[in-house]
Design goal:
single chain, mainly beta, Lipocalin, eleven-stranded antiparallel β-sheet, 1 helix, 9% helix, globular
Length: 161
């Protein structure tokens, strides 16, 4: 079953496109790179825990970010979502995820954001995320209604590879 897991990935990519990446050409956004969920440290309410989840985010040029999220559900089925987010907080199209067709983000600080996943213009899932001061851990809280109609709330911990 495809899950809402890449909600975090979308939020991170949009943070980069929203202009919070440091201005210096050599500086790197705290959200860029490869993030691996620490399933043991994460909590799952309403849906089963995933076996694994990895988010890879890269610069796509012109202020855009490319995102690839890959996961393995509790039942062993694999999922993947990929997109390129545009700058300026415009809704960005979502592909490979049946529960949403676009995403919006609101930056709340230099290492944090809130976001909404939408389907047909209606919010179906939400999330808030922050990266630790040392840049090695990302915490997320997300919730909503998944593609099966089940309500969920997750508290996630990701570690930078």
């Amino acid at each position: 079953m495809v899950r809402k897991f890449y909600l975090v990935a979308i939020g991170m990519a949009l943070l980069l496109t929203a202009g919070l990446a440091p201005a210096a050409d050599t500086a790197v956004s705290p959200f860029a790179g490869v993030w691996i969920m620490n399933v043991a440290k994460s909590k799952f309410e309403g849906t089963p825990a995933v076996k694994s989840y990895t988010i890879t985010m890269t610069d796509a040029g012109d202020g855009k970010t490319h995102n690839l999220a890959q996961w393995v559900d509790a039942d062993g089925s694999k999922g993947q979502a990929e997109y390129t987010a545009t700058p300026g907080g415009k809704p960005s199209p979502v592909t490979g995820y049946a529960n949403a067709d676009s995403v919006k983000v609101k930056v709340t600080g230099p290492r944090s954001l809130r976001m909404s996943m939408l389907k047909g213009g209606k919010v179906v899932e939400w999330g808030k995320y922050s990266v630790s001061a040392d840049g090695q851990t990302m915490h997320g809280t997300e919730g909503g209604t998944d593609e099966t109609g089940a309500k969920y709330k997750w508290t996630e911990v990701f570690e930078k590879k």
